[in-house]
């Protein structure tokens, strides 16, 4: 009898884990879709906006640091920077072997306009959760990240 209980417990845990995976995946994709829609106002992709934010928060950041922070390859970050540079949002400075990325005046203006709107967007997205629930959710996500 104990074996069945253990098997049932394992089966229930497995089913719960699968349900959790699908719910988390669904929520993630829904949030990405909504965030992408929000960013269309400025004609930005999520990657472009996150790059703009990272440079805005870390003035004079190296291209290598950006790639590491955003989990991009050197090639991917280079292509993204080139595109943002052509659109007038970023500029590059080279100090010997290190390339530093900075916001242009246009990039700074867009960054300063978008950040408050982004905060409002996130407030609306999570208004169904109390602050306590949001903090619990963060803790659970961090726990998953550290596995």
TrEMBL record:
Q: Which SUPFAM superfamilies match?
A: Winged helix' DNA-binding domain (SSF46785)
| UniProt cross-references to Gene3D superfamilies, sorted A to Z | Winged helix-like DNA-binding domain superfamily/Winged helix DNA-binding domain (1.10.10.10)
Keyword entries, A-Z: DNA-binding, Transcription, Transcription regulation
Q: What is this protein called?
A: MarR family transcriptional regulator
This protein's record includes keyword Manganese: no
HTH marR-type domain segment(s): 14-146
Which Pfam families has this protein been placed in? MarR (PF01047)
Show the GO MF annotations. DNA binding; DNA-binding transcription factor activity
What InterPro entries is this protein classified in?
Answer: HTH_MarR-typ, WH-like_DNA-bd_sf, WH_DNA-bd_sf
């Amino acid at each position: 009898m104990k074996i069945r209980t253990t098997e049932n417990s394992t089966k229930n845990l497995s089913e719960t884990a699968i349900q959790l995976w699908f719910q988390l995946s669904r929520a993630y994709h829904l949030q990405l879709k909504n965030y992408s829609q929000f960013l269309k106002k400025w004609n930005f992709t999520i990657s472009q906006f996150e790059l703009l934010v990272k440079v805005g928060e870390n003035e004079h950041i190296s291209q290598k640091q950006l790639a590491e922070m955003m989990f991009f390859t050197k090639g991917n970050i280079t292509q993204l920077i080139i595109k943002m540079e052509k659109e007038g949002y970023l500029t590059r400075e080279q100090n010997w072997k290190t390339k530093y990325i900075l916001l242009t005046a246009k990039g700074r203006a867009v960054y300063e306009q978008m950040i408050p709107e982004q905060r409002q967007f996130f407030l609306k997205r999570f208004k169904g959760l109390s602050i306590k629930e949001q903090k619990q959710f963060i803790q659970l996500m961090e726990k998953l990240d550290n596995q």
